Give the backbone structure.
Amino acid sequence: MNRIVFAVSLVVLVFGVAVLAQTQTESVEQELIKLENEWAKSVVKLDLAFMDRILADDYTWTDAAGNVHTKAEEIASIKSGQGVVTSSVNDEFKVRVYGDAAVVTGRTTVKETWKGKEVSGQFRWTDTWVKLAGRWQCVAEHDSNIPEK
């Protein structure tokens, strides 16, 4: 009888831990999707303080042309006003969580001019996030153009 009680208790414990882990993962996924969407809005609103908060100090962005940018370069570029983003909308998210690290992929549709030239389009991207000092920060980003059909 004691073995049955022990076995049932063990199954309930394992199931409970699995449910808790799934709930925590889903919560992290939603938090990262929210950060990605706020990031897209911050580019339109020129909210540099938000970007400074979510980009890790050693953040690296590889753009669609293969150029590599630092956090400081990214913020300076936005601050320069050479690029004007009037709309940036994310979708097609996929989030994979690995403890205090996560990889988020998605698609962005952006309306933008760069130095007066129309550069709107769609991009696929991969962002790598790490939980640093209790908050999620993006440490790396890579973009690819989606060719127009």
The chain has a mean pLDDT of 89. The radius of gyration is 20 Å. The CA atoms of residues 1 and 78 lie 69 Å apart.
